[in-house]
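dude i think i finally got it to work??
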Amino acid sequence: MSLSIRQIHPVFVGEVSGVDITRPLSPEEVAAVEAGMDRYAVLVFHDQKLTDDQQMAFSRNFGALEDARGGNITRPEDKRLQVGMNDVSNLGRDGRPLDRDSRVRLFNLGNMLWHSDSSFRATPAKYSLLSARGVNPTGGNTEFADMRAAYDALDAGLKGQIEDLVCEHSLMYSRGSLGMLDYSEEERAMFRPVRQRLVRTHPVTARKSLYLSSHAGGIVGMPMPEARILLRDLTEHATQSRFVYVHTWRLWDLVMWDNRQMMHRVRRYDESQPRDMRRTTVAGDAPTTAQVPA
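look at this
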C-alpha cells in the first residue's frame, strides 16, 4: 500500500496511511509528506510505535532539529529525555507526575494557551512532531487553528492595516499572562523579546497567514494596550470553531504540523495521571524580520 493522505477537516488536516515512519523513508515518501504539509499544514499518523531515535530520524527528513535550549526553565540535570527531544509531558525525571506547585509544571501550563512553537526565537520553528507515548485517560486533546484560513476571512481593510506590522514575542509574555513574573537574570536574558511579522507568506505556496501566539505581547510602534487589544481580537477571530481541528489522542499517534501556518494548544487533563508526549522540532531557516541589535 502506498502513502496516501485523506482530508479529515473541512478546512485543513490530513490523515496519512500507507507508510511506516519507524523505518527510513524513500525520497518519494518524504516528498509526499512535505507536499501534504504544504497543503494541509497538519498531518496525523496513527499506530506509529516510535522510539526517540526513530522519531528524530523521521524528523530529520525535513530539516535540522532545533536546539531546545532557551525554550523552558528545566535545568539540564532534571531533563528526562535525550538531546533532540522536547518533553511536553507532565512527568519528572523519576517518571512520576510533577508536583502541583512545581515551577516547571506551572511554566508548562503555558502550553494550554494558543501558541506557535518557538515563535519566541529569532528564527522560529518550521515543523513540530508530537508522539503520544502515554495518553491521559481524561482530557488532553490538542487543538489546532488554521492561520491561513483565518487570514483569508479578514476583510480587506484589516488586511491592509496589519500587513506590515511587526510583533515582539517572548516566553515572558505568555507566562506573564498566567501570573509567572519572577525570573532570574539569566532567564530574562534567555527570554529576551524577538521580532516576528504579524503576517507571513509561505515559501512554497505563497499563501499568506496570520502569525499569532500567546508569546506575542507587543507590536512595534504601537502603544502596548492598543497592541494587546488588536492581538486579542485577531486571536479570537483565528480560533473560531470553523478554523479549529480537535485531535483526540490515541496511543502511538504522531501529529505533525507547520508552525508557520498553525497555532495550537493542549486542553486541560487529569494531571494526577501520567501523560507522556514527546516532541521533535524541525528548525526554521530564516528570521521573519530583522532583529533588534543586542
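The first strand starts at residue 4 and ends at 7.
im so relieved honestly
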